[in-house]
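Table S2 (continued). Query chain:
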Amino acid sequence: MEETVLEEPICEEAVLAEEIPEVKPAAMVNKNGVKAEAATASGGGDVASGGVASGGGGAASGFSGTKIFTWFMVLALLGVWSSVAVVWLDLVDYDNVIARAKEFPLNFSEVLQGKLSAYDADGDGDFDVEDAKVLLDEKEVKTAAPKKETLKKGVKERPVSLVQKEAKEESAVEEQTEPIVEEVIQTTEGTEEEGQLPPNPSQEQQAPEGESPDAVGTTAKAEDATEESFEGKLAVEAGSFEAEAAVQVEEKEPVAVEEKTTQEDSEGNAEDQPEDMLQYKAKKKKPKLLNAFEKTIKAEIDAAEKLRKKGKVEEAVRAFDTLVQQYPQSPRCRYGKALAEDDLAEKMRSNDMLQKALSTYKEASELPNAMPDLIKATLKKRAERQQFLGRMRGALATLEKLVQIFSEDVALKNDLGVAHLLIGDNKSAKRVYEEVLAIAPSNGFAKVHYGFILKSENKIAESIPFLRDGLESGDPGTDDGRFYFHLGDALQRMGDDSAYKWYERGHQRGHFASVWQRSLYNVDGLKAQPWWTPKDTGYMDLIKTLERNWRTIRDEALSVMDKTTGLFVPEEENLREKGEWGQFTLWQQGKKAGESCHSVPKTCGLLERYTEATGCKRGQIKFSVMQPGTHVWPHTGPTNCRLRMHLGLVIPKTGCKIRCTNDTRAWEEGKVLIFDDSFEHEVWQDADSYRLIFIVDVWHPELTQYQRQTLSPI
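Corresponding output:
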């Protein structure tokens, strides 16, 4: 019996698909998350497969049970909207309601809010699910499982069309939306908070030089976080990012602060929207962007905004420009124009257009009668785009203005702290986070950043509880690889083995490739192993040149190693527990370091033709001298895009060793050691005399030529 029933629908569906290819039953999802194809039924009351009938007779399995309320509610609402829209078209943007009805599973209430105030049946000032219950004469939400939808055989669903009135125009614009046959799936919508950091840094990000993220300016993450700004400048777009300890970020260094916490659509003047689709209890406040006058021209604003949201940015700019000319004192019209100009700048990749948007954002925020929510949204967007262009101090000034206006907004203060970090002003950032923690002592975002600053001041023990508590809070903006990195590093320096628990957690959260490999600026898919052989690298010619000429290289290094020359400078990345470690850099980020090659011309001459080394924008070429009694903390480099070669020049017989992961090795004079410094490594110099080596970073051999040309420098 059951097999026969299963075979019939398959045949029937095949026939239907052949006869009416436009009609495809939508997949249904019941409350247990199980998908089921909507059954089709023939006309005239014939019974379809599985006993589902379209007419009044036959089995009722198609509409009986748990799904009937969902569909009854949707169809009934559409009926109400359709009939009333005929009379009150100016009050109901029917086309937009239909188009956005597809978002019911994710944003049911937002579709209704601000559009159907005429149907405020329960008198609470807005239209929400409670009003729908009144209109449908429902006293409570039914919990029966929704049933399958049935479609009559041979009948195609037709798109819904609407003629939208345009302000000051006689012509009508006809917009079509897809038919609504999707089931309303019960989901819970989360609230996005301000001050949220994006995912970890990716291979596309730029960071300052250094062997570890201790020296890396923590640039925005978002994985594809770095991009060239519209006219060739490097800029990073994403969430907020922090400058690392003692690293001064230049005025035009890549950045990004993007917190999409504001609603940009003009429909939003209602508040207390239902957020949880299942229980209809959770509420969140929607930004109020329209002042009293703007509510009277809301239809015109909506029409222009619709163009922007549909990607018709040129038309949107013209539409908003017309509105600004008609209503020059409207902050919302000017804000819409700024958003449209911003979108057009993205499309054109034009810095000039983006600058125009920045000016318009500023104008919108300064107009009288601007709603507080609009001022906040406008200035936040302006600060974000200023940071995109690398105008850190301008962004800082904008955020300071925001905090002055909204002095009780903790999230804005957190953003202000990040802005100070972006320009290397750790002292001011520290003061901001102290103020936040004084009024919100459990704020996780402030805790991780305050802990980060303490660690940058080498207050290792003091930084640990702030970093740990901030990560454990789970607050937005705390789940960031850099905080896991610095907490683990601080614990290691205190001799606490729980560091590896946090490294493991960071790995599980997707921030680290493994517990050992903890670089933050990576290209996915590259071969990962701690130690490499010359053959593994494919750079045999370079390695042979180094080993054949090691004495020449050594002699030139010794000739400039005298402290009076000032060429060897102390390591400044806070990697040493104790001792003395000096470095003399020849190439950095793929470029010669000043006039350094004048002092060692033979060494530089040997390397000139090896672009895998001299062109490695994520590495350095340098001499390294380490005095007895030096210990370098366990650390990792910033990127997996390079391999590091160590050529032994002056190596004491005993006491000098290097560990990479759990494999410890020693240098030999005239021989090259090769390892991937994105893996944890540690160095001891316990000999009786100095150790001198030549460090040559090379591109990871699996990187393509295009990647080598386009990856940002570190």
